[in-house]
């Protein structure tokens, strides 16, 4: 019995040791890495093997453009921060269309964070067409967060599907976005299928673009309701928005404006109704006074008439005066009328011979 107990205790100890070793191995796998992509402009070898960057120098525009950034599956890295900073360049950094290609980064455990840093007048210039720039179809499923504090979007005309399918992003702060040149249909399905998105700040967007918030989510009301959309500096409660009948707006200033407009419209409508009522009452009173005057005048000048005579006069007023044709048609016809007509015509014919 003692030996069996000894073997049992030793077995339990071995299991505990093996589990602790596996935990240590797991801890070794969980590694973070920060990569400054812009340093590869002058030194391409500084990037790790699973990160590849292609650059082009546009001297006329005065900027270096990141044409393509490819990310493969890293061996042990599970948390990767990609920094694109203008501090490491003598000029602004441009981002090319469809720049980010993360198709090969298929690991579900992989977390990618983007940081766009500016340096004074030097900014990270977004392309004119930002269609599907970070979309899940380009491997954007690996992106967890994006810091846009150093970007310049003044030349962007389209942001359609820019974050579509980014299923890991929980928060997007787009206050630095300049959307003055973005077309009206250039914000459609921006956040389509961003199933984990909870906080969205689009306070810098134009008023017309804010009104298209429903189209930004590809008309997905369920997804839109789970996101706290901030359109001004101060958020507003959804209960207040429901009371105003405008859940697509999520800022106190805009809500207050809508509330004031509704109150003004109601006041104007009430004033119009009151004015119309007063005019109607005055008109009715005037008609009554005129009818009473006519009655009193007729009573004073004419004696009391028989009801039959009054009825006959009313009928004569109602019936219009007959025309000449009507009088001719209503004349009584005789049996000799055709003979009279015949002899009249015959007489005219005989006179015409002379």
Layout of strands and helices, then pairs:
Blueprint: H1 2-29, E1 31-36, E2 51-58, E3 63-71, E4 77-85, E5 92-95, E6 100-101, E7 111-117, E8 124-125, E9 143-147, E10 151-152, E11 171-173, E12 199-201, H2 207-210, H3 213-216, H4 221-226, E13 228-230, H5 238-244, H6 252-301, H7 307-318, H8 324-330, H9 337-353
Parallel strand pairs: 1-4, 3-5, 3-6, 4-7, 5-8, 7-9, 8-10, 11-12, 12-13
Antiparallel strand pairs: 2-3
Report on this structure.
The protein is of the alpha/beta class. The chain contains nine helices and 13 strands. The protein has helices at residues 2-29, 207-210, 213-216, 221-226, 238-244, 252-301, 307-318, 324-330, 337-353, and strands at 31-36, 51-58, 63-71, 77-85, 92-95, 100-101, 111-117, 124-125, 143-147, 151-152, 171-173, 199-201, 228-230. Strands 2, 3, 5, 6, 8 and 10 form a six-stranded mixed β-sheet that branches. A hairpin with a 4-residue loop joins strand 2 (51-58) and strand 3 (63-71). It starts with a helix and ends with a helix. 24% of the residues are buried. Mean pLDDT is 74; it is low at 5-9, 20-29, 234-253 and 265-274.
Number of helices: 9
Mean pLDDT: 74
Uncertain residue segments: 5-9, 20-29, 234-253, 265-274
Alpha-carbon distance between the termini? 166 Å
* Rg measurement, Å: 44 Å
Determine the strand fraction and express it as a percent band: 15-25%
Given helix and strand content, the structural type is alpha/beta
**Annotation, overall tally of beta strands:** 13
What is the H/E string? HEEEEEEEEEEEEHHHEHHHHH
Percentage of residues in helical conformation:
25-40%
Q: Major sheet, described briefly? A: 6 strands, mixed
Q: Which geometry do the CA atoms define? A: elongated
